[in-house]
Design goal:
about 625 residues, eight-stranded mixed sheet, four-stranded mixed sheet, 20 helices, 20 strands, about 30% helix, globular
Amino acid sequence: MNRFSRLPVMLGVVAALFVGAIALGACGATPTPEVRTVEKVVTQIVEKEKVVEKAVQQTVVVQQTVVVEKEKVVDKVITATPTSEKVLRINLATYPDTIDPQKSSFVNEIAHLKLIYEGLTRLDKDLNTVPAAAEKWAFSQDGKTLTFTLRKGLKYSDGTVLDARRFAFAIKRNINPATAGEYAQITDEVMGAPEWRGADAKTPKEAMAKLEATVTDSVAAMDASGKVCSKDTKAEDCLTLKLTLSKPAPYFATIMGLWVTYPAREELITQGKETWWNSSKFQIGNGPFVLKNLEPYVRARFVPNTNYWRGLAKLNAIEFSYITDSAIGFQAYKNNEFDIVPLVAEDLKTVQADANMKDQANVYAGSCTFAVMFHQQKEPFTDPKVRQAFSMALDREGWVRDVLQGLGAPTLTWIPPGFPGYKKGETRWGFDAAAAKKALSESKYGSVDKLPPVKLTFSDSPRNRTRYTWLAGKWKDVLGVTVTLDPVEPTTYTALTKNVATAPQAYILGWCADYPDPQNWLSVYWHTGGFGSRIAYSNADLDKAMDAADVELDTAKRADLYAKAQDMLVAEAPVAFMWNNVNSYLVKPWVTGIVKTSNDSDFPGSGDPLTIDIDLSKMKK
């Protein structure tokens, strides 16, 4: 998600850790029967929430039953006859683990936040960084001071004035170790940020206060005269945000447009406590839409923000639904219950053969790389030879051809084609059955018979079971390894993969660009303390290489340093790089004004929903 403009999605603002193609909209065999009943609803949302709490312990059969029952509830909720209201209905698939700006990292989480909030900067249709809540910004000559000037008259959706102190709070909250945010390291360039963020409960109170004070001085909300804003400073006069950085970071203005900097309000977080983010009472932002209501696991409804500085949206509302089974979502789309759904491989031939739907297919370049993640502290993947063996036993061409039906491209690199830093011609750890067997024999285990059990965890859905059965079968064919499949409820799966203590032994996850810079792909993800830490990956030599590249201002030298860093990464085979995505969606003909970019990892046109409209005259009655 994105993320991810890291987008992580190159492009985009939202990219992050992307579960989309696998957990969000990519599933397995078509369930039977396909008949849906909407008049009888037997499962309540509270039951679904209880099930999620127990999902890890429950059997596959029970989980599958829950998913089906949940979809019945969703079917009942989303079924609607077109009216004069312009409501964009989107199946987002997986319900978010959180939509707290300073704690989110997955695409489906960020999709909500982008509607509710806006950062100091944003990405335009060409993925250039442009002014957003800030009307301008400037770096000091040495590149270590970044000053933003906010627009006058900014307001939250409820009319509360928005000033620089709100952004200062958000940035500090992201760094604060008590927040334990998923993306906290993205602001480590702020002076004192890594030290405070890395402090633990054993740090003496006085030392902790000094660490916090350093960050407070580095994130200064000021008035026009350069004086730090006090409690008595009027919000209308506190429009300057001055950031002191520990090193030159030419990409940092773009980072200030990411969700971790979104100005969530301190007083509302305090009132709402731990789960403040799932209530429209406390989730009040400064973005183009307002969260009107959120029905867990069923639907979220957003309406236009009348106080948004760029103007009023053309749509009357946007609705997200959370049907994890793409077969059911596809059927709902055919019944005109959705306007946008992911187009997945299993439905591609049906769509191409349909005279009407084939013109509704939107397939275009994406910005994500997917890989099989190997936990570096869980046997047998502590051994690099085992990781190499599993990677070389992976038939990527077959996966893209047979499973994805061409909706993607095989890859052996982390940075995808079209992005700065992409390496053409990489061949290490590609599909080679003989070399895979040899690598396994050279491992400390010596043979497949001595390997400890291998479990492949995935986001559960009927179609995903088919996909992962295919993958496990290929490893069995090449290596002789029996891989146990471990399906997990989708939202639970997301939560498990966020923490090194709960991350599975092996699983598939992706990364989508936040912004078009190798720093976003390499330093943000693979530096010690970054997202690679979820699988316990750390390499001090690689850290040094990335650190040198991050501060290099000479473009050519910087590119060369990142290229060398990526070579180091690939050499270690910490994961099995697998495929690059395409964005693929079905969009009804009455949806107009979509401006597509490669960072559309949630829905097409998500980068600027203000341009999207619905032509009611084209809607089927």
